[in-house]
Amino acid sequence: MEIFEAMKKRHSVRSYTSEKIDTNVAKELELYIDECNKESGMNIQLCLSEPNAFNSFMAHYGSFKNVNNYIAIVGKKGKDFEEKCGYWGEKIVLKATQLGLSTCWVAMTYSKGKAKYNIEKGEKLSCVISLGYGESEGVPHKNKSIESLCTVDREMPEWFKKGMEAALLAPTAMNQQKFHFTLEGNTVTAKAGMGFYTKLDLGIVK
């Protein structure tokens, strides 16, 4: 499955089967996370067979079911922390999709105190991503129009349109899609809007 196909296939899934993640799949995902951490300086962690983080009122309120695996998005505090968390986290989400797993970004509806992850000095946890074999593949989210999310200085080139189509497939908090791309000459700039998690969302979109 190539990357654009994975983007189209990925939908947020909150209910999972009790099937354990295949050992070879888990190893491949772990290796990919290690590569991303080396390249980015992040400390993203794969947490398997660990049901405590989603064994809470908040998780049930968020309609999560059978979440026994998740990815903890941990990194160094700093100005671009949230955007980096979104960027590298979504790279891993798309890899997980290619490996046949379902996922969901989770910022609030899990128990931070019960989650099992390691934090080094100067680091913090941004959020987690639930992971497993979904009871369903989820459903596509509603999208704003491409034109409302970008500004171009001429007729939209095909390569830019393809990029915007990919951006529309990205998950964002409350499906708010508060981001804006601008094309001037051959330079693309991307900006986050106002609101909760918009910097994280911009990283995911990028």
Automatic annotation (TrEMBL):
Annotated keywords: Oxidoreductase
Alphabetical list of InterPro entries matching this protein: Nitroreductase-like, TM1586_NiRdase
Residue ranges of every copy of the Putative nitroreductase TM1586 domain listed in the record: 2-206
Keyword Oxidoreductase: yes
GO molecular function, one term: oxidoreductase activity
Pfam family, one: TM1586_NiRdase
Protein origin, superkingdom: Bacteria
Gene3D superfamilies xrefs: NADH Oxidase, putative nitroreductase (tm1586), domain 2
Keyword match Oxidoreductase: yes
Family membership: Belongs to the nitroreductase family.
Identification of the protein by name: Nitroreductase
Species in which this protein is naturally found: Clostridium disporicum
Organism placement in taxonomy: Bacteria, Bacillati, Bacillota, Clostridia, Eubacteriales
